[in-house]
Specification:
This protein is mainly α. It has eight helices and no strands.
Length: 213
């Protein structure tokens, strides 16, 4: 719904984003292979077949947690944004485009974990998702364009700097994939574990620093 001055409510943006992310995490699990022992020749039973698919299961867990992080930070960003304009809406659409490719990139890595290109594509897709999120908050918070006028300047600065640091980490992880894909996976896994650890400690935002409304 349009508001005065050419601005829009964020309600439909949030609803659309939640719906797309819900579909993405559903598609992630649908990418998992299901072994049927009775249809396999020379099979030693279900457990060996399941164990053989550990890369798919690991990729699913990591990708699920990453999508959760993206959703959580999107939620954090839009808690601070009071209205939207055409630019913010466009950034959010591009963000959804980068998130929606996650089932493909996750499956690509699971089935080609030793391939450098698979790691590069995976890292690049996450970098673009983080870039869109960082861009949304930076754009909305610049001169408090779309955020609460009372939002502390220190919080805005801290969030933007922290987002920039994460972008550097993601870019580095992607770049290292040119040498070995496992460096990309290790950095991304550490980043995921760090973020969820800070989330479990009830810290808020990409900077993982407490902030009271």
């Amino acid at each position: 719904m349009s508001t005065r001055g050419g601005y829009f409510s964020t309600d439909r943006i949030i609803t659309l984003t939640d719906g797309v992310i819900a579909i993405v995490i559903t598609l992630l699990v649908l990418e998992l292979s299901i072994p049927v022992v009775s249809e396999l020749q020379d099979s030693d039973g279900l457990w060996p077949e399941v164990r053989h698919l550990w890369r798919e299961y690991l990729a699913y867990v990591v990708s699920f947690l990453i999508v959760g992080i993206l959703w959580l930070y999107h939620h954090t960003v839009y808690r601070r944004i009071r209205s939207a304009d055409g630019t913010l809406i466009s950034l959010n659409i591009f963000f959804l485009m980068t998130v929606s490719i996650m089932p493909f990139t996750s499956a690509l890595v699971a089935k080609n974990s030793d391939e450098r290109l698979a790691a590069i594509i995976y890292g690049a897709s996450l970098f673009l998702s983080a870039l869109m999120l960082a861009g949304m908050f930076f754009y909305a918070s610049w001169k408090r364009r779309l955020v609460d006028p009372d939002l502390p300047a220190a919080f805005i600065k801290r969030e933007n700097i922290s987002a920039a640091v994460i972008l550097v980490v993601l870019a580095t992880a992607t770049f290292l994939g040119f040498w070995t894909p496992y460096s990309t996976y290790i950095i991304l896994t550490v980043l995921v574990l760090y973020y969820w650890a800070t989330t479990l400690m009830n810290r808020e935002g990409v900077s993982a620093t407490p902030h009271r409304d």
